[in-house]
Amino acid sequence: MTILSILDTAPVWQGSSPARALRESLRTAPEAEAMGYHRYWVAEHHNAPFIASCAPPVLVAQLAAATSRIRVGSGGVMLPNHPPLVVAEQFGTLEALNPGRIDLGVGRSPGTDMTTAKALRRVSSPPGSEAYREQVRELVGLLTPRPGDPVVAVPAADGAPDVWLLGSSVDNGRFAGELGLPFAFAHHIRPQNAEPALRAYRDAFRPSAAFPEPRTLLASSVIVADSAERAEWLAGPSKVIVEQSLKGIRNAPNVTPEDAAKRHWTAEEDAILRDRMAHHVIGDPETVRERLGELLEGTGADELMVLTLVHDLDERLRSYELLAKTMSGDGSGRSQ
After folding, report:
1. Which alpha helices (DSSP H) does 144-193 contain, by range?
2. CA-to-CA distance for 137 and 302, rounded, in angstroms?
């Protein structure tokens, strides 16, 4: 059976609000737990009116309190925005209060526009520089303290969260392997890099105390509905999101499927959008099962994490339910 997890950005929709988006996340996590999902991660974005997930440790605390078994964590904390000591203390506290259930996924993207990044970043170096690598090493060191260390992330001394390195490039994969950390690849961002990045990770992997074997996770955009036609309709807003991103005008809440259905594109625009959305897995359960099976076989990923941008919460939960059933061998989600 496939290990399934969820990546939640707390999407904000037209006619809704960030507060409602966050409340929907708190409703979704217990439902996902009941369906057998393994992890529930939240993103970090800033100054984005279409995403309410901007404070992962705060949201993770609420999600952990609303659930009892599912692993909860960040997908991820954008480390260049934060002092490693603060991150270690925050997630060490979360782990102390929820032992064995906390994941700390870290990434190097600013998670925002460069103007906002300047207001957030504690270092002036670009996120892909050696400064980021040093931050990761510092964070790992703080979460694995040794006697005599001059600075200690106190709550982490009794137990640390699992640290995952996030990325969408070969370089990210290689770095995660060198550190002996599990690697979460953002297939929804750079699908063409999935196989080489995961291969580089495995080739570079050096066993660590926490992870003697390589561990991989693949994050992908997935929408499942009872029919292919319904799934395509639900995916209408995603098509608009891609269009807005290409034009650099993504500065408002996500449109509804009804509004997306009113959009008209030229044949050339439609072809471009279809090409850009080819890696999104959208369809009825059987179609999705086949496509995801091919994706997991091709990459060798140990786990699948899905990003499901569906406007209506009940329809979103239905997508998760259908996915859990179709990807399991017995008609139910995988229990962990």
Report:
1. 170-179
2. 25
Q: In 3-state terms, what secondary structure has residue 165?
A: strand
For 183-225, write each residue's pLDDT tens digit.
999 999 999 999 999 999 999 999 999 999 999 999 999 999 9
**Predicted pLDDT at 331:** 42
Q: Which residues, including other chains, have CB under 8 Å from residue 307's CB and lie 6 or more apart?
A: 7, 8, 9, 188, 219, 220, 221, 222
- Do 142 and 88 form a contact (C-beta atoms < 8 A)? yes
- Tell me which residue of 43, 98, 91, 42 sits closest to 68, measured CA to CA: 98
| CB contact burial 318-331 (16+ within 10 A = b; e otherwise) | bbbbbbbbbbbeee
For 207, other C-beta atoms within 10 Å of its C-beta total: 10
Q: What are the counts of helices (DSSP H) followed by strands (DSSP E) for the chain?
A: 13, 9
Full-model pTM:
0.94
Distance CA 254, CA 295 (A): 28
End-to-end C-alpha distance for the chain, whole angstroms: 12
Question: What is the rounded distance in angstroms from the CA atom of residue 126 to the CA atom of residue 253?
Answer: 28
Report the C-alpha gap between 117 and 249 in whole angstroms. 18
pLDDT digits (tens, 9 = 90+) for 117-137: 778 765 545 555 688 999 999
SS3 of 81, please? helix
Q: Note whether 11 and 316 are within 8 A (CB).
A: no
- Run of H or E residues at 162: strand 162-167
Q: pLDDT value at position 123? A: 53
Closest CA to 45 of 313, 320, 250, 280: 250
CA distance 128 to 335: 37
What does pLDDT average to over the chain? Answer: 93
Count of beta carbons in the 10 Å neighbourhood of residue 96: 17
Which helix (H) or strand (E) is 185 found in, with range?
Answer: strand 183-186
Angle between helices 18-35 and 56-66 (to 10 degrees): 50
